[in-house]
Amino acid sequence: MKTLLSVIAVVLAALTVVNGGSQNCVDPPHNIINKNYNTNLENVTTVQIRSEYIKTRRYRVAGDTSCKAGGRRYGKHAVCPVYYVLNTDVNRIPQRQYEQICSCSSPPTSDGGVSLVECRAVIKHLPVLRRTGCAGGIYNFTLTLEAFQTGCETVQPNIRYVPVDTPKSPE
């Protein structure tokens, strides 16, 4: 352990000299990151992450974003079609996560008619390690849950029933 800390100290000192004396942070060794990631989910926190540690970018990688019946390569047999997005963030482990985004608010029908159901995102909260600060030249990571869209499902729409006033019969 002493040797590992010595190596980290040398690397940090070299980075400080190369960067004109300013201290930069580096990630901890992979074995420490893996140990933190593979812990029990009871250790998951709901800390407020500072905005400087959130650099989320989304890139469409496959599928059609328009809502069409048939002719889809991805999700063509799905009632609610989806397209695929790569969600990346350099301050998160894993840095890359694929998502499935609903292409339609209601399923397309082959005859162009009105659908009686709606498409709704399936959201799954997955454990990730998120950078939360820097101490001694090494980034701190916290195990937290982040929401990702993992699919699209059909649901009955919320229908509001309006009471109809019936005329009273004369007495």
Helix-strand category: alpha+beta
CATH architecture: Ribbon
CATH top level is: Mainly Beta
Low-confidence stretches: 1-22
Largest sheet: 3 strands, antiparallel
Order of helices and strands: HHEEEEEE
What is the domain tally?
1
* Average residue-wise pLDDT: 75
The gyration radius over C-alpha positions equals: 25 Å
The number of helices is 2
Report the β-strand fraction as a percent range.
25-35%
Shape descriptor: elongated
CATH homologous superfamily heading: Cystine-knot cytokines
| Terminal Cα span | 94 Å
What does it look like?
This protein has 171 residues and is of the alpha+beta class. The protein has a single domain, classed as Cystine Knot Cytokines, subunit B, CATH 2.10.90.10. The protein is built from 2 helices and 6 strands. It has helices at 2-18, 30-37; strands at residues 57-62, 82-88, 92-93, 96-102, 118-135, 138-155. The strands form 2 sheets. A 3-stranded antiparallel beta sheet has the order 1-2-4, with no helix packed on it. Strands 3-5-6 form a 3-stranded antiparallel beta sheet, covered by helices on one side. A hairpin with a 2-residue loop joins β5 and β6. The termini are far apart. The model is unreliable at 1-22 (pLDDT under 50).
Question: Which key phrases capture this entry?
Answer:
single chain; alpha+beta; three-stranded antiparallel sheet; 6 strands
